[in-house]
Amino acid sequence: MRATVDFAPLFRSSVGFDRMLNALDLASRIPAVDNWPPYDIVKTGEDDYRIDMAVAGLAEADLTITQERNTLVVTGRKAPESQSAAEYLHRGIAGREFERRFDLAEHMKVTDAHFENGLLSITLKREIPEAMKPRRIAITSSTARAEEAVPQIEARKEAA
Fold first, then answer.
1. Calpha distance 110→51 (Å, rounded)
2. For residues 36 and 94, is the Cβ–Cβ distance under 8 A?
3. Which InterPro entries match (predicted)?
4. Contact 25, 7 (CB under 8 A)
């Protein structure tokens, strides 16, 4: 039996983390799902990631990768085999259909997908827009603001 975690105190003391807290809450309620196909998630750099999936028995044409907002969906559907005279005595290579979903953080983008020797590699990169990156805010003093607000009029000085 799983222990339930109450995230209510975190909602009261944090700002902007509601999506993450909702995901944690949802993850604690979802029962364990099928673990096929096996996969690895590798962090290859500060903002670079790679998902490697072992999809033995499937061809490149049997795989579909789509990104819908913050969800990456990898689907495998094996093309139906033509009836052959071969009779399997043991069939251990799984060729079943699957759909694997990955929740992505904000600004994650799939940059490449590569299939070789039964291994599907999906490369992801976090690309934060310039408007979202940290920027330095200049601080002005109240005396500088007062001088800017009051226009100064200079009179021409005439010799007497």
1. 10
2. yes
3. A-crystallin/Hsp20_dom, ACD_IbpA/B, HSP20-like_chaperone
4. yes
Confidence of residue 39 (pLDDT cuts 50, 70, 90): very high
Q: 55: domain CATH number?
A: 2.60.40.790
Q: Token pair of 105, please?
A: 């953080």
Name the 3-class secondary structure at 122. Answer: strand
Q: How many domains in the chain?
A: 1
Q: Which amino acid is at 33?
A: V
Q: Across the strands, what pairs with 156?
A: none
52 is a domain residue: yes
What pTM, to 2 d.p., does this model score? 0.62
Answer yes or no: are the C-beta atoms of 124 and 65 closer than 8 Å.
Answer: no
116 has a pLDDT exceeding 90: yes
